């Protein structure tokens, strides 16, 4: 695999994923410890001034515009606060991946297991999370770890965010979704996936509905018309067993991103399954 998220850190897809993740974490039950497993954690911290980010320009068109926006909805406030805090209120040079956002949101007793299969990325991840209470990293296949390490009872959240470069990533994601549901019926799952063409997207949703993971909320952000299936024309989140009352915040995130950063796109939040 040659995927490197450093090219894409802070782009429109990260904004949707991370804003939604922070909304999920804010609504986590206070009835007991929360166990979080991240199947494809990446390196955890990204330098937007680095050569990869500068070459792609995606951060400037994503988090760069968000940090300067004057019309942000409230649902983006936690993400902007996190980015501001990381950069100490200065220019946006650093961007937090999901691991840092999760680690900062942990409560006493919560646990977070971050998986990253690529050794060099895992090394950077371990360094970014070094010394964090309740946090562990593994250089391992996150699909397998999510099922093997997930507690069979209690509150849990599984984040599945593969690069979708392997031909079996869609099938593996659905299989993991189904296995998580069988192991812990209370576990929430948030899946990120690209939108390139409707056939692939609709096929994935049909398979996800058949996985028996319970109610699904779909956050669909088409950034442009789906005219070229070779491009990432948008992205989606599929959330299994979402917390009550989150749809409004998800709609704010989706609508602002498509309207402000897209090109004749459309966004919607809807229920499947």
Strand-helix topology:
Elements: H1 12-26, E1 34-38, E2 45-47, H2 51-56, H3 58-61, H4 63-68, H5 77-86, E3 94-96, H6 98-105, E4 111-115, H7 119-128, E5 135-138, H8 142-149, E6 155-160, H9 169-183, E7 188-195, H10 198-210, E8 216-222, E9 234-240, H11 247-261, E10 266-272
Helix pairs in contact: 1-6, 1-11, 8-9
How does this model look, in words?
The protein is of the alpha/beta class and 273 residues long. It has one domain (5-272): 3-Layer(aba) Sandwich (Rossmann fold). Helix content is 40%, strand content 20%. The chain is built from 11 helices and 10 strands. It has helices at residues 12-26, 51-56, 58-61, 63-68, 77-86, 98-105, 119-128, 142-149, 169-183, 198-210, 247-261; strands spanning 34-38, 45-47, 94-96, 111-115, 135-138, 155-160, 188-195, 216-222, 234-240, 266-272. An 8-stranded mixed beta sheet has the order 5-4-1-6-7-9-8-10, sandwiched between helices. A two-stranded antiparallel sheet has the order 2-3.
Assembly state of the chains shown: single chain
Structural class: alpha/beta
Tell the overall outline.
Answer: globular
Order of helices and strands: HEEHHHHEHEHEHEHEHEEHE
Q: Give average pLDDT, whole number.
A: 94
| Main CATH class | Alpha Beta
Describe the sheet with the most strands.
Answer: 8 strands, mixed
Total DSSP E strands = 10
Structural Rg: 17 Å
CATH homology group? Vaccinia Virus protein VP39
Count of helical segments? 11
Which spans have pLDDT < 50 for at least 5 consecutive residues? Answer: none
Helix content: 40-55%
- State the distance separating the first and last CA atoms: 33 Å
Q: How many domains?
A: 1
Strand order of the largest sheet: 5-4-1-6-7-9-8-10
Strand content: 15-25%
Kindly report the CATH topology: Rossmann fold
């Amino acid at each position: 695999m040659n995927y490197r998220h450093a090219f894409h850190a802070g782009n429109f897809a990260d904004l949707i994923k991370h804003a939604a993740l922070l909304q999920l974490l804010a609504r986590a039950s206070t009835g007991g410890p929360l166990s979080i497993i991240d199947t494809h954690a990446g390196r955890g911290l990204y330098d937007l001034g680095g050569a990869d980010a500068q070459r792609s320009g995606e951060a400037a068109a994503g988090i760069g515009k968000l940090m300067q926006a004057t019309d942000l909805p409230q649902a983006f406030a936690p993400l902007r606060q996190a980015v501001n805090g990381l950069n100490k209120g200065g220019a946006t040079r650093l961007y937090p991946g999901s691991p840092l956002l999760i680690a900062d949101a942990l409560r006493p007793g919560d646990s977070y297991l971050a998986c990253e299969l690529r050794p060099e990325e895992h090394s950077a991840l371990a360094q970014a999370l070094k010394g964090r209470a309740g946090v562990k990293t593994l250089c391992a296949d996150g699909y397998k770890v999510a099922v093997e390490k997930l507690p069979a009872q209690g509150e849990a959240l599984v984040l599945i965010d593969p690069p979708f470069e392997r031909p079996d990533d869609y099938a593996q994601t659905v299989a993991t979704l189904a296995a998580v549901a069988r192991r812990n019926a209370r576990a929430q799952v948030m899946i990120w996936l690209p939108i390139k063409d409707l056939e692939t997207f609709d096929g994935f949703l049909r398979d996800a509905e058949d996985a028996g993971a319970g109610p699904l909320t779909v956050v669909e952000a088409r950034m442009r018309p789906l005219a070229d299936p070779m491009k990432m024309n948008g992205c989606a989140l599929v959330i299994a067993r979402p917390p009550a009352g989150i749809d409004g915040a998800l709609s704010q995130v989706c609508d602002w991103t498509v309207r402000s950063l897209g090109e004749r796109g459309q966004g919607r939040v809807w229920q499947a399954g």
